[in-house]
Structure formats: structure tokens, C-alpha cells
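Ticket #359: bound-state structure for pyridoxal-5'-phosphate.
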Amino acid sequence: MKIPSFKTEQWMNQYEGRAVYNMTDTCVSPLTYQELLSFDSSHLLSSMKLDYGSITGDVQCKQEICKLYQTGTVENITTAHGCLQANEMVMETLLEPDDCIIAYTPSYQQFTDLPRSIGCRVIELPLYEDDQWQPKIEDLKQAFQHRIKMVILNNPNNPTGTVFSPEYVTALISLAKQNSTYILTDEVYRDPSIPSISDLYDRGISTSSLSKLFSLAGLRFGWVKGPQEVIDAINVRRDYSIISTGPLIDTLSLFALQHQEDLLKRSDILLSRNKEVVRRWLNQNPQFSLVMPQAGTVSFLKYESSLSSETAAIELLQQNGVFYVPGSCFQCESHLRLGLTSAPEQFQKGLALTAEYFH
Ligand SMILES: Cc1ncc(COP(=O)(O)O)c(C=O)c1O
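RESOLUTION: The complex was predicted; output attached.
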């Protein structure tokens, strides 16, 4: 199976270690192991047997995951190593060569290049910056002239922060219903104020993880929530790839899921603070602009300069230790991906150095 390299991941791999001011991270300031252990009031870890654990995912974890949705039971959930693998499991299970799918651009490369590697035809619909990075319903109707097996979106979207409008989601579901199309929504940046596709549509499949808003990317714990027949089909394939996520990860994840409200609150406080910092900075630096995301942890900063995004990102890192993923990783020049996740003082300093560089 041929697949191109994943541009964002390669960039992070090559440069992130040199960051002094990480201005592009999508994960809210990570929790330490010690902080997570403080949730282990019954000392479950010390008596835990390191066998395979529950094969299709720990039931208590799934019960806690259910609380993040309006509908569904543990039968509608299977676990994975991160949202990345959750997405992969859905696509590998449901997509076949010559299927036609819809994805959006700019977005996460997995949604276009993984289906292509399976042999699917991918129709990429643009998100329009001058319309708050929203897609157009006319483009969607046009694309549905083809027989569409699946629509894949990221809500909120990386890198633009787009939360798809209720009008668009309604139109999408209506077209999908008429055509028996699956809608796979990567909801790794969703907070419970945004409806999940799996609660809105009977062929809606939601994926997520503890990596972003729960600040625990290192656990590599994610899940799929969807129709039971899809979950059953995924579980058949899952036996050939992971067997289980294992009791250590399941138990640590359970602690976090049992404290979901506290962890989401912690993220919300930090993200709101950093949004305020960005607003003030944009007022003082009109050569930059961005669409302030309604939710999620990322935004797409536009700068006024003829410099390529890659040159700007490399020079900012070399000269000041300020780290961004360039727009080129998303086929979108004159932009840098701005994560809203770092400690406010660091974040403020990183923005000041960014303005100085472009001055
Ligand atoms: C849209 C999207 N999906 C999935 C992932 C990977 O998430 P996880 O760490 O849960 O595998 C990322 C990471 O940046 C992402 O932006």
C-alpha cells in the first residue's frame, strides 16, 4: 500500500524538539503522570494484572465515554490507540478501492491520503477563509452528483478551527441520508457544547481521544462511536491488529474519563485565556489576521508578507526558538498553524517574537 509522507507529522518530528516557544501544539498542556495518579484513590494500579485486559475495550471506560454523547451504549463504542488509529480502523473497515469519498481542505492529511492509498477517489471540498473557513452547501450538492460512500470531516477542524455550521451539517445529513452515505467525523477537538455526528445521524461515526482537550496524548487512547454493525465490523478487523488497548492504558484512561468535567474545565480556562491574548495581539498587529475558533485548540494565522510559510517557520525557530507548523503542510501559503494550548506567558512571548520577526 503506497502512501505519501504525512507532512505535519514529519515537520513536528524534525523540528519540535528545538522549540522554546511551541506556538503550534494542538494538545492542551499535558498532565504529568503524577497528576493522573492522584486520581487513583482506590490504588487500582498496584493490584492491576498485566494481561490483555478486555479485548474490545474496558467496559467502565466505555461507560464514561458514553457520558460525552447524548445517545448510545457501550455496544456503540470500541477503543483504539489514539484518534488516528480510530480513524484508520473506520476507513480500513468501510472503504474499498474505487469508492468515492468527500473530504475538506485545508484539513488533516489522513482524511485524503489514507482513502487514496486504499484506492478511493477523493473529492476535496474547499473551506473558504473569507467565509469564516466554512464550506459551501452548493459544492456539497455538486459533489453528491457522484455516488459517495463516505464524507470525512474534522469538527472542529485542524488547522482552521472551523466548527461546521448547523445549516451545513443539516444539509450534509440530508444528502447523506438520501444516498446511504457514512459520515465519519473526527471529533478529537470537540467539547460537549458541539453536537456529535453519532447523535445526529444513524450512519454517523464519531472518533475521538484523550489527546487534545484531556491533555493526555501520551496515553495513546482513543475510540470510535458509531452504529453497532459498524463497531462489530471494526472489532473483527481489530483482532488482527491490536487485540486490546491493554489494562495499563485502559486504567489510566479510566481515571481521566472519571474526571472528564474537571479536565475539560481546565482546558477551557487555558484556551479562553489564550484567545484573549491573541485578540489583544491582533489589535496591536494588524498585519496578522485569523478566524477566531468557536471551539477546539487550533487556528490558522494569516500574515502579510511575501515570505513562504516554510521559510518563515524555519527562521522563526532558528532565530528565536518560536515553533510553528507552516501553511505549506496544509497546501495553504501565507499561514502558520497557531495552537492555543501553551502556558499564557510563553504564548504571549511567542506572539511578541512572531510580530518582531515579521516587522
Ligand atoms: C484531526 C486530528 N485527528 C487525529 C489526531 C491524532 O490524535 P491522537 O493523538 O488521538 O491519535 C490529530 C493530531 O494532531 C488531529 O489533528
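RESOLUTION NOTES: The pocket of pyridoxal-5'-phosphate is lined by residues 26, 82-84, 108, 154, 158, 186, 188, 209, 211, 217, 222 (CB under 6 Å).
TICKET STATUS: resolved
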